[in-house]
């Protein structure tokens, strides 16, 4: 399921639909129980194990330092407490409502039908995208080859692996004929084609094990049936398809052919198993709560930021963050601690015990109180629950958690429980609530309270879902500066509906920063005075600061909240006294929560340099004043020197964390240039170029330093290289033209500025330079100070972990 009006078109809408349906189903069951006057549930070890796992997860989430994300927020987190509670509710409803073989069979058909529809869509999507470069859906998020409604391409392969197992089980049962049989064969072929195209080896491994179980079960079952009827042979037909799938899966598991390269799926990157275990160990070492309860369900991203290895900074993966570890099992060690891991292990044991006990009983006895067809459906349910459940369980040890696959696993366990209960006498527990007036009153009140609470939860989550819609609208509008006010209005509505989601407040702070930039660039007019512009600017600054502070106060341990607060303060240094100190303080707190990040130290250094520049402006104003204040001037010079030294120290820390971090070397070069140490400025610019060959910002900085140091030949080489990298790079051509002019290459200088004029036809300074050159004069003749180039110089991108919720694109 996917809808285009939220920030995450697939995940959030799926979570909303599943949660709302689960709540409505629970209310329906409560009403049904009240009307029937009895409680009915299947006898099983899995149900209490699920309950224990959810309770332990709930305690861990509630006590977590990130409880807003872990305990309360349904949307955006696929493995936090609300999601696990939703899975448990699905398990409960399916296990108590699927009381007959007919219901079980219909539920399996519903699952298979949805998988068939998805398979048809995905095949058309893959073929149209790979062969014709055109996609079925018009939205940008769907116009990639591996788009699907399950998650990643690998998660999709797992889903189709489960669907293939289901189709094989149904065909092997020989319960279906005619059109149903044809549909099943076509579906199986379609599912197999998808699994082969994606080529995710854990799916083959899971299929091999699932087919081994299915073949063993069918073999023993047919052998038992043959002996019971006195026959000397048993039918091999029920084994042929599982054996065929087993052979294909086994061969592909050994060969691992790169078939998926045909479709150019995005490479999925995740932490290694060892790295995940190392992070889990560090979480446990922090405190007794971390050891026994972990950091809280759905909070692995915070664990990763705090405890990731410094060695990653030497790789191309250093910028990546991960919401989960290598697989669900090692992830839960970090997020659930010893108790959460033990509860999950008990759930696994309960499932395995129930699965093999139910499978063993199916071919030993036939219940006398069910019809033959119903008995076959119940047997089908047991096999589906065991095979599908084991397949998904294996993948939980090999792959990160996925919302759709989580639903599928709990559904498979519910089908197993319901089928096992229906396959034996006294498989259901029944308690009458009408045996006495007192019991009837107490149970009725409890049910009414649960219905009322469910209605409240439904309303609460519906309100939060509407907030997600407004948030999605805000993101879509934020790309256009002219629509930034509309983006702010939508974010304001989102915050009003869900004031406890710090991500909304972070985004609001960032949008206000865009509004600040827009306001600064405004010019007075007949309808807008300078005073009004100044008032708008002060309002935007206050709103940005308040939003960032609210986010940081709401979730004080969240790295992104603290980083955003630092970013807001950094951007208002020119407008607010003390903003630089607040920015540095916020960045330092953020660094404590991401101590291997070179980019946060870069942010600190950049803040110190911005503060030093502001101090420079004050010194310039003092120098022009009629009355000199030597004491204040000396203090400011001392302050500036301290700021530059602090910036230098932060840059040294940044480079110590990542020696090839280009933005740090680039900023170091600018710092030395500010202090007048041209030699060291050039040295750092050379380092930046060495680590980022072909980067326009690095080439421009080095060339400009050579130019200012009158090393014209070296400057020429750098600017020529920059123009070779990007022929439309006006800044490079501008200084290249100046170099040519100084070295006496007048014709070359004219050619460069002619090209710049083509790229910037309205630039009067370029026209004046051309006029000077053609008159035989120096390029900057009678132009006073050296004019600015036609566009701001390009700097290397500040490779920073924090990904903005808002990505502005000016017109």
TrEMBL record:
Q: Which PROSITE patterns match?
A: TPR
Does Phosphoprotein show up as a keyword for this record? Answer: no
Chain residue ranges for the region called Disordered: 775-811
Domain of life, per UniProt, equals Bacteria
State a single Pfam family of this protein: TPR_16
In this chain the TPR repeats are located at 696-729, 730-763
- Residues passing through the membrane, by range: 12-32, 44-68, 80-98, 110-137, 149-170, 182-201, 207-226, 238-255, 327-356, 377-397, 403-421, 441-460
Skewed-composition ranges (Basic and acidic residues):
800-811
Which protein are we looking at? Uncharacterized protein
């Amino acid at each position: 399921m996917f809808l285009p009006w939220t920030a995450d078109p697939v995940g959030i809408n799926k979570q909303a639909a599943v949660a709302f349906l689960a709540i409505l189903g629970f209310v329906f069951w409560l009403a049904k129980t009240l009307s029937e006057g009895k409680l009915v549930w299947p006898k099983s070890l899995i149900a209490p194990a699920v309950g224990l796992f959810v309770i332990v997860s709930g305690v861990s989430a509630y006590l977590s330092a990130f409880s807003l994300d872990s305990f309360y927020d349904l949307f955006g987190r696929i493995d936090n407490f609300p999601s696990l509670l939703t899975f448990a509710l699905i398990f409960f409803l399916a296990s108590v409502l699927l009381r007959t073989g007919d219901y079980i069979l219909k539920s399996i058909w519903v699952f298979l039908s949805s998988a068939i529809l998805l398979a048809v869509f995905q095949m058309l999507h893959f073929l149209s995208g790979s062969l014709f470069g055109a996609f079925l859906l018009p939205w940008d998020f769907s116009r990639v080859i591996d788009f699907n409604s399950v998650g990643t391409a690998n998660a999709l392969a797992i889903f189709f692996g489960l669907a293939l197992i289901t189709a094989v089980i149904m065909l092997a049962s020989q319960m279906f004929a005619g059109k149903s049989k044809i549909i099943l064969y076509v579906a199986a072929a379609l599912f197999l084609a998808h699994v082969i195209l994606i080529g995710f080896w854990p799916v083959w491994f899971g299929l091999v094990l699932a087919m081994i179980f299915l073949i063993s079960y069918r073999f023993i079952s047919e052998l038992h049936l043959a002996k019971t009827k006195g026959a000397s042979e048993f039918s091999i037909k029920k084994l042929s398809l599982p054996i065929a799938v087993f052979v294909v899966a086994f061969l592909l598991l050994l060969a691992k052919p790169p078939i998926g390269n045909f479709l150019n799926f995005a490479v999925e990157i995740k932490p290694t198993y060892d790295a995940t275990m190392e992070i889990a160990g560090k979480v446990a070492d922090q405190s007794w709560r971390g050891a026994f309860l972990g950091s809280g369900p759905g909070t692995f991203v915070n664990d990763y930021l705090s405890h990731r290895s410094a060695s990653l900074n030497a790789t191309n993966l250093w910028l990546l963050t991960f919401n989960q570890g290598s697989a669900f099992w090692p992830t839960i060690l970090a997020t659930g601690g010893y108790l959460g891991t033990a509860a999950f292990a008990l759930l696994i044991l309960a499932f395995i015990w129930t699965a093999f006990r139910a499978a063993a009983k199916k071919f030993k006895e036939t219940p006398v109180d069910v019809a033959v067809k119903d008995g076959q459906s119940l047997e089908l349910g047991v096999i589906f629950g065991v095979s599908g459940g084991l397949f998904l369980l294996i993948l939980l040890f090999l792959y990160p958690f996925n919302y759709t696959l989580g639903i599928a696993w709990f559904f498979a366990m519910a089908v197993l429980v319901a089928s096992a209960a229906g396959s034996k006498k006294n498989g259901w527990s029944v308690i009458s609530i009408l045996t006495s007036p007192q019991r009837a009153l107490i149970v009725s009140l409890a049910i009414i309270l649960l219905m009322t609470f469910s209605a409240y939860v439904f309303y609460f989550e519906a309100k939060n879902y509407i907030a997600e819609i407004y948030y999605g609208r805000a993101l879509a509008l934020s790309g256009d500066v002219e629509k930034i006010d509309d983006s702010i209005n939508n974010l304001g509505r989102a915050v009003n509906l869900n004031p406890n989601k710090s991500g909304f407040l972070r985004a609001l702070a960032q949008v206000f920063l865009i509004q600040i930039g827009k306001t600064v660039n405004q010019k007075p007019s007949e309808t807008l005075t300078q005073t009004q512009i100044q008032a708008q600017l002060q309002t935007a600054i206050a709103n940005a600061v308040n939003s960032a502070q609210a986010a940081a106060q709401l979730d004080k341990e969240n790295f992104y909240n603290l980083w955003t607060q630092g970013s807001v303060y950094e951007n208002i240094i020119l407008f607010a006294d003390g903003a630089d100190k607040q920015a540095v303080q916020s960045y330092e707190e953020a660094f404590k929560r991401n101590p291997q990040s070179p980019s946060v130290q870069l942010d600190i250094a950049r803040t110190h340099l911005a503060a030093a520049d502001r101090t420079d402006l004050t010194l310039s104003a003092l120098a022009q004043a009629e009355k000199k204040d030597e004491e204040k001037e000396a203090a400011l010079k001392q302050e500036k020197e301290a700021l530059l030294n602090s910036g230098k120290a932060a840059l040294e820390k940044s480079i110590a964390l990542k020696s090839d971090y280009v933005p740090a070397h680039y900023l170091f070069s600018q710092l030395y240039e500010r202090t007048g140490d041209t030699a060291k400025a050039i040295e750092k610019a050379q380092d930046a170029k060495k680590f980022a060959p072909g980067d326009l910002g690095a080439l421009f900085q080095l060339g400009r330093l050579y130019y200012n140091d009158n090393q014209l030949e070296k400057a020429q080489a750098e600017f020529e290289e920059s123009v070779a990298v990007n022929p439309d790079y006006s800044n490079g051509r501008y200084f290249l033209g100046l170099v040519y002019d100084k070295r006496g290459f007048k014709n070359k200088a004219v050619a460069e500025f002619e090209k710049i004029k083509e790229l910037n036809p309205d630039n009067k300074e370029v026209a004046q330079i051309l006029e000077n050159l053609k008159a035989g004069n120096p390029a900057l003749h009678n132009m006073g100070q050296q004019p600015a180039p036609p566009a701001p110089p390009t700097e290397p991108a500040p490779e920073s972990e924090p990904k903005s919720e808002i990505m502005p694109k000016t017109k």
